[in-house]
Design brief:
By secondary structure, the chain is of the alpha+beta class. The chain has helices spanning 7-10, 35-45, 86-95, 116-132, and strands spanning 56-62, 68-76, 100-106, 135-142, 147-149. The longest helix has 17 residues, at 116-132.
Length: 156
């Protein structure tokens, strides 16, 4: 017969709290209708000292009406790459109650062409989102001079 846990063992279990604090009224949240609008929003929030220096990965979190709930900076890496853990993408999306997300990362080199790894990661996250009813509506590669949209190019 299994022993029951004593009270001291129960106190060693971590508590998990999900919190999303939004200080912006729904009507004042930016509305993103196109890749170009999203690029312009991302450029405003991107650290201009890093866009041509290190690769960063960000997630634009949106409600069903495509109003921006927030932009989550997922990771900062080196010159040639950064880690984008799908679990962390969905942790942020679930925590903010996002229905739609736009993935984004910069290429410090200025090259707008997605790598094979970019394409595979996009597909992996989009597939995972289908199971959670979180739609990946785009993946935007950002440079200081322009952008590449997976959706505009028919890859999403």
């Amino acid at each position: 017969m299994e022993q029951l846990m004593n009270l001291s063992e129960l106190n060693m279990v971590s508590e998990v709290e999900l919190v999303y604090k939004n200080k912006v009224k729904p009507s004042e949240r930016p509305l993103v209708k196109s890749a170009k609008e999203c690029y312009e929003l991302l450029k405003l929030t991107w650290d201009e000292n890093k866009i041509e220096f290190v690769e960063q990965f960000k997630v634009v979190l949106m409600n069903r009406a495509q109003r921006v709930l927030g932009i989550y900076e997922l990771s900062t890496g080196g010159v040639a790459g950064t880690v984008a853990d799908p679990k962390l993408v969905f942790t942020a999306a679930l925590k903010s109650n996002a229905c739609n997300i736009i993935l984004s990362h910069n290429h410090p080199s200025g090259n707008l062409k997605p790598s094979r790894a970019d394409e595979e990661l996009t597909k992996k996250i989009a597939t995972g989102g289908m199971y959670l009813d979180i739609k990946v509506i785009d993946h935007i590669i950002v440079t200081s001079e322009g952008y590449y949209s997976f959706a505009d190019e028919g890859l999403l």
